[in-house]
């Protein structure tokens, strides 16, 4: 079924009796050509592009819970291509281009809104760093504009410009940056993959990976054994645990990141604002809630919930930047498990086991990567060669020292 405005009107006139389930609920088959472990954004987009770009249809996505119940439905929805380092730049640039055509591609409203992202700076040194970043973005073919203090004030008049510790000096505006409705991205890719014959199997946890003579042969699941020629591990915060089923030790730590949303308010923030010094970022959802987040909880954990000290820290950062936020009531907060790599950049690569592939290390930036990650992981699984824009996301870079440390933080997982 194709979705359109006309269809909505026609269904409205017919009492909405013609809508069909968005995807099938098949039982797992005993064997597939390819199995993707994890029904988050990256797993679903991988399956979609395997079918769309490479014509492979005998694929299953195995999800231990429900589709989109992981980080893809828990993030603060920011989509951008403002990376600095070669390796990251071309990948996120490719991803943003895919975002820009995604709704037409999937025939699904993912509510992609290019409302503009502003990264604030608070010193001469920080301004120089953003000038360099902006030049790198423009060289890559993306957009960047340097705003002085008055330029920021014209767009964001409600900020505290004269904060004693972090006075606002200006900002880097990335007009094509913005947000998208996170669940819809999972649902859109799920629907597209299902329409191309992919089996989406929910409530199916992978409990073991079968290997024979150095080659993957299938997986054990809570719904029985499934044979497969190739298996992709795409489980974000659970990457270390699932890779351990194949005897692999990944350079990944899992940490919690929390997010917050206020009651619905009239339109007040019409950009995405990033306040790096307070590690605080905020936008307003289409329902009116102010959606914001901060830093990691700083200790490794698999519990998808946060702690009160970080709540206090994030609220303080918000009050520092825009005291008006103190008038809003916070409705809820939640946590997601981040797959933090030592250099803050991802991994899309083969593993030492033939037929076993890994896509992980998205840190807290993997939502914007969903289209390109699926595109590149599908390319890798179909051809056994890395895609050009993901060629630096190698698993062995931690052994060779060719790190992709975007922030210059050093190799400590929870600082990225
Ligand atoms: C609070 C928060 C804010 C964020 N904000 C942003 C942002 O603004 N912009 C941005 O770009 N990124 C952001 N991120 C990061 C982004 O959400 C993640 O990097 C990305 O969603 C991870 O990839 P995924 O969607 O595939 O993960 P997930 O949705 O977590 O998918 C992994 C799936 O694997 C499944 N799984 C795990 N183990 C097994 C198993 N054994 N068998 C079967 N299935 C299994 C899980 O149930 C899960 O559904 C944020 C994350 C959080 C938590």
UniProtKB/TrEMBL annotation:
It comes from the Bacteria. It is found in: Cytoplasm. Residues 35-78 form the Rhodanese domain. One of its GO terms (molecular function) is sarcosine oxidase activity. It catalyses: sarcosine + (6S)-5,6,7,8-tetrahydrofolate + O2 = (6R)-5,10-methylene-5,6,7,8-tetrahydrofolate + glycine + H2O2; sarcosine + O2 + H2O = formaldehyde + glycine + H2O2. GO terms for biological process: tetrahydrofolate metabolic process. Its EC number is 1.5.3.24. The keyword Ribonucleoprotein does not apply. Its cofactor is FMN; FAD. It is an enzyme of class 1 (oxidoreductase). GO terms for cellular component: cytoplasm. It holds the Pfam family DAO. Keywords: Cytoplasm, FAD, Flavoprotein, FMN, Nucleotide-binding, Oxidoreductase. Belongs to the SoxB family. PANTHER family: FAD-DEPENDENT OXIDOREDUCTASE DOMAIN-CONTAINING PROTEIN 1, SARCOSINE DEHYDROGENASE-RELATED. This is Sarcosine oxidase subunit beta.
């Amino acid at each position: 079924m194709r979705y359109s405005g006309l269809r909505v009107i026609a269904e409205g006139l017919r009492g909405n009796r013609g809508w069909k389930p968005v995807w099938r609920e098949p039982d797992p088959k005993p064997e597939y050509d390819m199995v993707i472990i994890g029904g988050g954004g990256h797993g679903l987009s991988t399956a979609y592009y395997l079918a769309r770009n490479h014509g492979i249809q005998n694929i299953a996505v195995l999800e231990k819970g429900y589709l989109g119940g992981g980080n893809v439905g828990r993030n603060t929805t920011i989509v951008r291509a403002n990376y600095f380092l070669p390796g990251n730049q071309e990948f996120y640039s490719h991803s943003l281009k895919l975002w820009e055509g995604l709704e037409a591609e999937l025939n699904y409203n993912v509510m992609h809104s290019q409302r503009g992202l502003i990264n604030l700076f608070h010193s001469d040194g920080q301004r120089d760093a953003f000038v360099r970043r902006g030049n790198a973005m423009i060289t890559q073919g993306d957009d960047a504009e340097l705003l002085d203090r008055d330029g920021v004030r014209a767009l964001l008049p409600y900020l505290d410009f004269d904060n004693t510790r972090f006075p606002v000096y200006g900002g880097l505006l990335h007009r094509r940056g913005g947000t998208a409705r996170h669940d819809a991205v999972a649902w859109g890719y799920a629907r597209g993959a299902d329409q191309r014959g992919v089996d989406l199997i929910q409530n199916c946890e992978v409990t073991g990976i079968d290997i024979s003579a150095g080659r993957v042969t299938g997986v054990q699941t809570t719904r029985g054994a499934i044979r497969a020629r190739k298996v992709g591990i795409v489980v974000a915060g659970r990457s270390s645990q699932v890779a351990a089923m194949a005897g692999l030790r990944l350079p990944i730590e899992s940490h919690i990141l929390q997010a917050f949303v206020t009651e619905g308010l009239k339109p007040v923030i019409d950009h995405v604002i990033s306040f790096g010094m307070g590690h605080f970022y905020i936008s307003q959802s289409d329902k009116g809630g102010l959606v914001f987040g901060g830093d990691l909880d700083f200790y490794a954990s698999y519990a998808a919930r946060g702690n009160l000290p970080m709540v206090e820290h994030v609220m303080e950062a918000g009050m520092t930047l825009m005291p008006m936020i103190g008038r809003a009531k916070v409705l809820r907060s939640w946590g997601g498990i981040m797959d933090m790599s030592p250099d803050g950049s991802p991994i899309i690569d083969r593993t030492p086991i033939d037929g076993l592939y890994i896509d992980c290390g998205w840190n807290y930036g993997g939502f914007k990567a969903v289209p390109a990650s699926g595109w590149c992981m599908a390319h890798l699984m179909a051809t056994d060669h890395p895609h050009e824009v993901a060629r630096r996301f190698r698993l062995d870079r931690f052994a060779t020292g060719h790190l992709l440390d975007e922030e210059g933080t050093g190799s400590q997982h929870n600082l990225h």
